[in-house]
């Protein structure tokens, strides 16, 4: 029997160890159990401690009370004697027996309870494990759910974007459809128009084929007109085609030249404006930097740059004459950028300084720097505004001026050049003209003189001839001798003498001289000396044919009118 | 502003001679030539049929009268009224007839555009040009009259031929990269030829005088494209109006777009919007002058008394839009009319689906200068050849004038109502020719009109 063993084991514990008997956690029965297991091996000593010979009666009463409280009212312990030294065995044994029964019962219940407890604890363990398992499962499923939620959300988003894409695509499709529709209507309209025209053409063709009475095309003009520019029409030649090509290229070239000129003007202007801007920016920067709060290193750098800039400016101003210089252009734009950057940095610096000063101001320090800052800023702003206005005004003026002055200058210059040339040419030509005039005058004078002389000679010759003829006639008569004397008076020129050769030669020589039209030998002497020979005279009288050789000799004498007058 | 009396005309054929001295009008089959200043009839010619087209020669000595139905062209001389010339195209028919720039050749386009016949009045010679293209503007003469550009179509391909007008020598002949060439126009300096495609494709090609392709411009694809094209008088800009209600300005140096003018229904940023407001004629002070006035000449005082029917609206302004029928071809949408002022400062445009408004753009600032909104669709507008002044008419009895200083509406004082259908400026005389359906009237401006 396990209970006695336990009892005996428990007997070894002291009464004070009644409370801490270890057992399985069953709280309800705790106090009972602690109460039920007080017995230790040294219980005798304990019991003896409880009950001594002195307090037997008290003990008995106490025990009876306890038994009563346990429900064993029928088995009271009785004392044998009123002194209380002995016990009535029967009730005591009954009481003990009852107590043992009670104990047994309680032990069995305890056993049962323990069994049940074990069972319950095992089920609880089971439950716990299943609980944890289920909890884990729950967590897992919750996580899964959230994951699924997330996926669902993403899918929803995707759906939305796809829907919007779809919408845009639909819109575009609609737009394209409308475009297609309009194009289709345009095409059909055009096609219909062409078809109608083709139908008309067919109709007309059939009409013509049937008609056959072809009305010829013709023009009926009263009279042909002259060309509008008054010139005559030209044949179509290769030269004409070439000239047309030339004309065309000329007009194209002149147009390109004009546009290039205007573009170059614009460029020059813009360059000037940029340079102005640069100058003014430098100007703005340099006084500011000298009085500014920038670090001296900065200043020196700026000064260096400025001087650099000045130098560059000088270069570029020289190089603006070389208009197509890429390098100059780049230099200019770079320097402008540089200056602008500096200006901007400076302004930013000033701004930051202003804000610093403002901060300082808030802590009630240095009112003055802010003011000066503000003033400076204002001044700068004004300057910049002025510069801008100035630039603008300059631009406009320059534009105007350049457009006119350029033309005027060069036009005047060119005109001058051209007129100079012309003047020179004119002068030369005048000179020539004067010379020629003089020459002509001279010649005219000579001519007139010669003519006068000739006239006189002619007259003299006529007279001579007349007298000679007279003489001849008279000589032909028997009165020649007499007449000779009289004829020799003055008109010895025509007297036939034997000195014709000599005379002739002299005449020839003189005639040779006088064959040049500018000089005439003295008429009288030649006439008086000239005694033409008979054949000459016969020739003059057209009695014998002239010979070519001698013709020239007598050409003076046989001038056109003379011949006529002779014949 | 003075108005002359009303004369008859037919077919809207009324033209001032290039030298500005004479006014020629057609009345049925008669050609009437008047002196511009006195409006006395100087000459009267009778043609063989109703005149379909009438044109002055460039030297103002001859007038061409074409009768398309009968295929006849008659030429009359002003100096010698007895001189006559008749050109009979025969059975081949006549579709259009025009002078050459030298005033001595006549170009007749036969029916079905089979060929162009060039008649010489100096030599009675005939030459033919084959395969001319039947399109919106297939032939153009350069401003100085030395070159003629002609669009041709052969084997389903477009070509351009450049002729020297002196002797009709073919200078250049080249193929163009267009699908269906719709028109060509010389720049005023005669060095560049702008060629544009039909509305199914937005394409503008720029060719140099010697036939080289300088540049191509295409703003967008697929939607309907170019509707109208115009050069600026200095040849600096090319304005292209398209079906998307925008005007794009191309510059002559890079041939790229430098500005885009839009015609939105709500106008927000412009200098001024002039809106024509109908005022009841029952207003006392305005009605009496009209009743009492002599129809021959209206004094300047009266024109001052006439109400200014335009008021300046505050922005933003809504402009009435008429949506075109999407199923029809050549829809009434897009910029169909472009006109530069003679001093190059302004561009006037009309958007077809806002037909009652004329937009004036400032070309120096490339921004909208003014919007003129009328009560009915604008029929015609034209810039004064000397001053920056725009005259427009809407088919009612009023004449509207806009200048940078302001806007003026003038009632044409005629009995029986003269509805102004179209108008033409005189080349130098500061006067306007107003054409009604069957009538015409001259309007003389006062020389200090611009100060208004």
Automatic annotation (TrEMBL), chain A:
Residues 287-325 are annotated as: Disordered. Residues 301-325 have a biased composition (Basic and acidic residues). The keyword Coiled coil applies. GO terms for cellular component: adherens junction; centriolar satellite; ciliary basal body. Keywords: Cell adhesion, Cell junction, Coiled coil, Cytoplasm, Cytoskeleton. Residues 184-211, 347-390 form a coiled coil. Its main location: other. It is found in: Cell junction, Adherens junction; Cytoplasm, Cytoskeleton, Microtubule organizing center, Centrosome, Centriolar satellite. Belongs to the ADIP family. This is Synovial sarcoma, X breakpoint 2 interacting protein a.
Automatic annotation (TrEMBL), chain B:
GO terms for cellular component: microtubule organizing center; MWP complex. The gene is WRAP73. One of its GO terms (biological process) is retina layer formation. InterPro entries: Centrosome-WD_assoc, Quino_amine_DH_bsu, WD40/YVTN_repeat-like_dom_sf, WD40_rpt. It comes from the Eukaryota. This is WD repeat containing, antisense to TP73.
């Amino acid at each position: 029997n396990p209970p006695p063993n336990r009892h005996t084991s428990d007997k070894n514990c002291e009464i004070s160890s009644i409370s801490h008997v270890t057992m399985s956690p069953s709280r309800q029965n705790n106090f009972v159990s602690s109460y039920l297991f007080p017995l230790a091996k040294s219980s005798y000593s304990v019991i003896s401690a409880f009950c001594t010979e002195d307090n037997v009666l008290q003990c008995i009463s106490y025990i009876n009370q306890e038994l009563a409280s346990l429900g064993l009212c029928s088995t009271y312990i009785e004392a044998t004697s009123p002194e209380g030294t002995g016990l009535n065995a029967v009730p005591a044994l009954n009481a003990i027996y009852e107590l043992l029964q009670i104990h047994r019962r309680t032990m069995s219940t305890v056993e049962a309870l323990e069994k049940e407890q074990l069972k319950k604890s095992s089920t609880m363990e089971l439950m716990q494990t299943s609980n944890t398992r289920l909890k884990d499962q729950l967590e897992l499923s919750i996580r899964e759910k959230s994951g699924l939620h997330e996926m669902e959300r993403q899918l929803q988003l995707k759906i939305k974007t796809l829907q919007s894409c779809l919408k845009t695509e639909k819109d575009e499709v609609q737009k394209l459809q409308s475009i297609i529709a309009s194009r289709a209507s345009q095409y059909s309209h055009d096609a219909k128009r062409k078809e109608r025209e083709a139908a008309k053409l067919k109709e007309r063709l059939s009409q013509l084929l049937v008609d056959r009475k072809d009305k010829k095309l013709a023009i009926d003009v009263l009279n042909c007109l002259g060309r509008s520019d008054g010139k005559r029409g030209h044949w179509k030649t290769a030269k004409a085609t070439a000239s047309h090509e030339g004309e065309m290229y000329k007009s194209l070239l002149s147009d390109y030249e004009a546009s290039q000129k205007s573009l170059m003007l614009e460029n020059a202007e813009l360059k000037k404006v940029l340079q102005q801007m640069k100058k003014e920016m430098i100007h703005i920067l340099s006084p500011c930097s000298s009085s500014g709060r920038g670090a001296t290193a900065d200043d020196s750098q700026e000064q260096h740059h400025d001087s650099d800039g000045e130098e560059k400016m000088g270069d570029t101003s020289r190089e603006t004459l070389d208009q197509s210089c890429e390098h100059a252009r780049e230099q200019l734009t770079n320097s402008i950028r540089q200056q602008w950057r500096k200006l901007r940095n400076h302004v930013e610096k000033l701004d930051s300084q202003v804000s610093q000063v403002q901060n300082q101001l808030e802590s009630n320090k240095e009112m003055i720097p802010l003011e000066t800052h503000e003033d400076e800023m204002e001044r700068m702003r004004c300057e910049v505004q002025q510069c801008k206005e100035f630039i603008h005004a300059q631009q406009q003026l320059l534009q105007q001026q350049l457009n006119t002055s350029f033309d005027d200058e060069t036009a005047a210059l060119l005109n001058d050049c051209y007129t100079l040339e012309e003047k020179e040419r004119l002068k030369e030509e005048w000179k020539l003209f004067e010379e020629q005039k003089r020459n002509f005058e001279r010649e005219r004078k000579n001519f007139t003189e010669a003519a006068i002389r000739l006239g006189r000679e002619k007259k003299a010759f006529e007279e001579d001839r007349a007298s000679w003829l007279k003489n001849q006639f008279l000589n032909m008569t028997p009165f020649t001798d007499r007449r000779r004397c009289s004829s020799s008076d003055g008109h010895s020129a025509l007297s036939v003498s034997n000195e014709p050769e000599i005379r002739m030669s002299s005449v020839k020589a003189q005639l040779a001289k006088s064959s040049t039209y500018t000089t005439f030998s003295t008429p009288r002497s030649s006439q008086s000396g000239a005694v033409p020979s008979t054949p000459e005279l016969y020739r003059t009288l057209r009695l014998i044919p002239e010979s070519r050789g001698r013709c020239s000799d007598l050409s003076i004498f046989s001038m056109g009118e003379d011949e006529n007058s002779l014949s | 502003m003075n108005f002359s009396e009303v004369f008859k005309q037919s077919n809207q054929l009324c033209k001032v001679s290039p030298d500005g001295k004479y006014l020629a009008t057609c009345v049925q089959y008669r050609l009437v030539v008047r002196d511009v200043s006195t409006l006395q009839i100087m000459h009267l010619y009778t043609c063989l049929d109703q005149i379909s087209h009438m044109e002055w020669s460039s030297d103002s000595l001859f007038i061409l009268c074409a009768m398309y139905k009968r295929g006849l062209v008659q030429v009359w001389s002003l100096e010698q009224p007895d001189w006559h010339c008749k050109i009979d195209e025969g059975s081949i028919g006549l579709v259009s007839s025009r002078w050459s720039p030298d005033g001595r050749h006549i170009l007749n386009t036969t029916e079905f555009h089979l060929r162009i016949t060039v008649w010489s009045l100096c030599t009675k010679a005939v030459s033919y040009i084959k395969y001319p293209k039947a399109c919106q503007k297939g032939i153009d003469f350069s401003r100085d009259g030395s070159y003629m550009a002609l669009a041709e179509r052969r084997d389903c391909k477009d070509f351009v031929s450049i002729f020297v007008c002196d002797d009709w020598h073919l200078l250049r002949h080249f193929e163009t990269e267009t699908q269906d060439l719709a028109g060509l126009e010389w720049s005023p300096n005669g060095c560049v030829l702008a060629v544009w495609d039909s509305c199914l494709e937005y394409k503008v090609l720029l060719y140099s005088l010697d036939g080289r392709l300088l540049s191509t411009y295409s703003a967008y694809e697929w939607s309907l494209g170019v509707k109208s094209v115009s050069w600026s008088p200095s040849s600096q800009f090319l304005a292209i109006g398209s079906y998307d209600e925008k005007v794009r300005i191309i510059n002559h140096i890079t041939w790229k777009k430098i500005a885009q003018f839009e015609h939105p229904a709500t106008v927000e940023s412009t200098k001024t919007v002039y809106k024509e407001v109908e005022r009841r004629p029952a207003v006392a002070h305005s009605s009496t002058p009209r009743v009492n006035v002599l129809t021959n000449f209206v004094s300047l005082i009266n024109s001052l008394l006439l109400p200014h029917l335009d008021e300046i609206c505050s922005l933003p302004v809504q402009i009435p839009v008429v949506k075109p029928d999407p199923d029809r071809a050549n829809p009434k949408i897009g910029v169909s009319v472009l006109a530069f002022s003679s001093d190059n400062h302004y561009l006037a445009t009309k958007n077809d689906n806002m037909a009652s408004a004329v937009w004036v753009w400032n070309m120096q600032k490339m921004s909208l200068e003014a919007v003129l909104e009328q009560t009915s669709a604008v029929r015609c507008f034209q810039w004064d050849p000397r001053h920056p002044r725009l005259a427009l008419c809407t088919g009612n009895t009023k004449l509207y004038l806009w200048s940078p200083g302001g806007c003026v509406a003038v009632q044409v004082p005629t009995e029986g109502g003269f509805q102004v259908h179209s108008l033409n400026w005189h080349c130098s005389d500061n006067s306007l020719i107003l054409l009604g359906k069957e009538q015409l009237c001259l309007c003389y401006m006062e020389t200090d009109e611009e100060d208004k």
